[in-house]
Design a protein that fits this description.
The chain is mainly α. Helix content is about 55%, strand content about 10%. It is built from 13 helices and seven strands. α1 links the parallel β1 and β2. α3 crosses α12 and α4 runs parallel beside α13. The longest helix has 30 residues. It starts with a strand and ends in a 7-residue tail after the last helix. The mean pLDDT is about 95. Bound molecules: adenosine-5'-tetraphosphate.
Length: about 325
């Protein structure tokens, strides 16, 4: 079986963008790929985190994998910092990545613009290298991610190719797997910005901790475009195109069918039905999350076994890389 790897940061509440762009794909891929899925807590500390909240969020993301439908008997689910090989390989890769290419990463540019270049952590700058290590350790064939992470997967390929050219075939070259629908869900209050966990305003995202009433309110208040026609036109009507994408993602109905039904009904009716589709789509996951909360021992056991399985693969890759690069005294 080919292998899929992906990670999600415990950097806030999981939102519908994370679900449609990432988790949903992970679940669909299970029949075709061996899945290795990680809670990337080392990535989360590239921006300030409260230790208590971070630990809580690590549990939440881990539980979300299972609640979304990842089956731990087929896929490996673990916490990144439980497998030290991630930071070990990241350091080695850092010595092959250039300052120039990391400076061009859009996510770094966006986040450092917000925080100010002088004061953001060096970890935020090196984030894509740690992500490359995450992927290359497991010799992943595909990396299912949302559109925002495509550039980082491309950097991963560049690094792998550079190292393979110099030292021989150490790494498999991974392909990003971007879903055809939902790869870039935009903020409800600004269709030019992507929906983001760490956004300041909670009205910009719908989180899986939101109750049905909160979801209805957030959707009712979501920004719309001028006019009253519900049509899919990302250029002229980016807000409505985003809402149609969300509707299609949760209802399973194609966008053109939704356009036909709501073209003339006005925004209020469209938004009311959209809210119900989102609530219905989220409900089974929210229910399983609540069930898992009542049984913390189960999650801990899954993560312990996951970390053991992941470490066995990761350590073997690191051993080969160290040997090829000339680190230590070799295995004699
Ligand atoms: N708006 C989005 N639409 C579709 N997919 C998205 N993803 C993130 N935002 C959207 C995908 O979700 C997965 C997990 O993301 P992450 O935790 O690694 O961090 P991120 O990409 O930086 O996502 P966030 O939600 O914006 O978090 P913060 O605010 O902490 O940076 C990835 O596959 C991502 O592509």
């Amino acid at each position: 079986m080919k292998r899929a790897f992906s990670g999600v940061q415990p950097s806030g509440n999981i939102h519908i963008g994370n679900y449609l762009g990432a988790f949903r794909q992970f679940v669909q891929l299970q029949d075709v790929y061996e899945g290795i899925y990680c809670v990337v807590d080392l990535h989360a500390i590239t921006v300030p985190q409260d230790p208590g909240e971070l630990r809580e969020q690590i549990r939440e993301v881990a539980a979300f994998y299972l609640a979304a439908g990842i089956d731990p008997s087929r896929s490996t689910v673990f916490v990144q910092s439980d497998v030290p090989a991630h930071t070990e390989l990241a350091w080695i890769l850092n010595c092959f990545a250039t300052f120039g290419e990391l400076s061009r990463m859009t996510q770094f540019k966006d986040k450092s613009r917000k925080g100010g270049q002088e004061s953001v952590s060096a970890g935020l700058f090196n984030y894509p290298v740690l992500m490359a290590a995450d992927i290359l350790l497991y010799q992943a064939d595909v990396v299912p991610v949302g559109e925002d992470q495509k550039q980082h997967v491309e950097l991963t390929r560049d690094l792998a190719e550079r190292i393979n050219r110099r030292f021989g075939p150490l790494f498999r070259l991974p392909e990003p797997l971007i879903p055809p629908l939902g790869a870039r869900i935009m903020a409800l209050d600004n269709p030019q910005a992507k929906m983001s966990k760490s956004a300041e305003s909670p009205s910009s995202y719908i989180s899986f901790t939101d109750s049905p009433d909160v979801i209805r309110r957030k959707i009712a208040r979501a920004v719309t475009d001028s006019g009253r026609e519900v049509i899919y036109d990302p250029e002229a009507k980016p807000a409505i195109a985003n809402l149609l994408t969300i509707f299609s993602g949760f209802s399973g109905r194609p966008v053109h069918e939704l356009e036909r039904e709501y073209r003339e009904t006005g925004y209020a009716r469209f938004k009311a039905d959209l809210a119900e589709a989102v609530i219905a789509g989220m409900e089974p996951i929210q229910r399983r999350l609540a069930e898992m909360e009542a049984e913390p021992g189960y999650l801990e056991q899954v993560l312990r076994q996951g970390a053991e399985r992941a470490a066995a693969i990761a350590e073997s890759t690191v051993r080969q890389v160290k040997e090829a690069v000339g680190l230590g005294l070799g295995r004699a």
